[in-house]
TrEMBL record:
This is STAS/SEC14 domain-containing protein. It comes from the Bacteria. Gene3D superfamilies: SpoIIaa-like domains. Pfam families: SpoIIAA-like (PF11964).
Amino acid sequence: MTREADLVHLKLRGPFVLEHARPVHEYLAQIMAETGRCYLLADMSEMDGIPTDTRRYVGEWHKQHTVSGVAVYGASFATRAIATLMFQAVRIVGVGRQIEMEFFRDEAEARRWIAAHSARQ
């Protein structure tokens, strides 16, 4: 995980388990408190699932926090399906909060989307 101003670049390897999700989301909250916004750039090319307890935690976290946008790249079809379901649930539980998430083929496309999104804010 690396930080570039208000952007966190997360490279996921294996399953995204709760013990990894908690510090990641604490870091996102810290950046949002510092800068007023936070984008997540997620490389899911080596990710292998999101367990139920992690999905539940992320949903609960989003009841109190809203990232500015999530750009995902490198996700397999199965990973895209799981991530899409998780973010749909986040949108439902985060009443009044709209989280934007898009999937891209590669990092360059994802970064362009974040730059364009950031410029509109």
